[in-house]
Amino acid sequence: MARKDVPPRRDRKMQQRLARGEAAALGELYDRFASLVHSLAHRVLADEQDADAVTREVFAHVWEHPETYDPQQGPLRSWIAAVTHRVAVQRLRDREEPEQPRREELESEVRRASVAARADYIVHSMPAPLRAALDLAYFQRRDYRQTAADLGVTEDEARRRLRLGLQLLSTAHDAGTPPGYRGAV
Known about the structure:
Belongs to the sigma-70 factor family. ECF subfamily. By secondary structure, the chain is mainly α. About 70% of the residues lie in helices and about 0% in strands. The chain has 8 helices and no strands. It has helices at about 10-20, 25-45, 50-65, 75-95, 100-125, 130-140, 145-150, 155-170. Helix 4 (about 75-95) packs antiparallel against helix 5. The chain is flat and about 50 Å long.
């Protein structure tokens, strides 16, 4: 969580380089996001080979269709995550038609993966002060008083940040697509 989101200006430049067909741009993008793409695909598909195939497919899509990314809709990272989720879910659906119990299990897996992907998007899109408060409280197991002290803010401000962060995360279960998801694959 220490890493800041990439500024939209950098994302626009990357998109322009891809549109010009700069192979180096694709390599840089792959270096930045391959682990994200692979882990999201693996979370949906629970299969290493399928996750590898989805990773290749996502970067092929990015290379062939850089114009489908709109920097005004959000960071490049979020768009790539949304494309990955869409490709992985489609691959899951394209698998052999399962028997009813397996079908329900797959649908449940898709719902869980969707919620996880949306939560990941929300966490990385929320303002840094909210992320920092949640990181301290939930990953480092600090109470709101310790969080306030670590952040150098009042206890009321720490509680406010935690409450807002949790409210944002609670929307991960809501239906709908994340902002920045253009559905283009």
